[in-house]
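Page 42, continued from yesterday. The earlier attempt failed because a stray header line got pasted into the input along with the sequence. Redoing it now with the clean sequence only.
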Amino acid sequence: MREWWRRRQERNRARAVMHSLFERSDVLKRSSLRPDHRTRADLRDYELRDGEVEVVYFTVVRHPRPYPFSKQFHEVVELYRYDVTAGEVVVHDSINLTRLRGRDGEGRP
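This time it went through. Structure tokens are written below.
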């Protein structure tokens, strides 16, 4: 039971660190993230060093269009890696779910 409680507290700290990222304009301006992506961010994993959250992995679902006013869309899940100590966030991986399902973004599903 203690192990479960400890892991839950760690996960809550990691989630708080992830959410605080979206308030840091200095870090966001160097990435494709915007403050409104906070509601779409989902914590996936984290790394600790000496009990403190050092790295956070999270996903964001995005719906990019190839050009403005296009009816074509894609549903893309991007996995981000946020290094808290370095203060940088990078796209670690991305998956185009629309193409994975055998569609090419034509119209809404």
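Notes: The first helix runs from residue 2 to 21.
Reminder to self: strip header lines before submitting.
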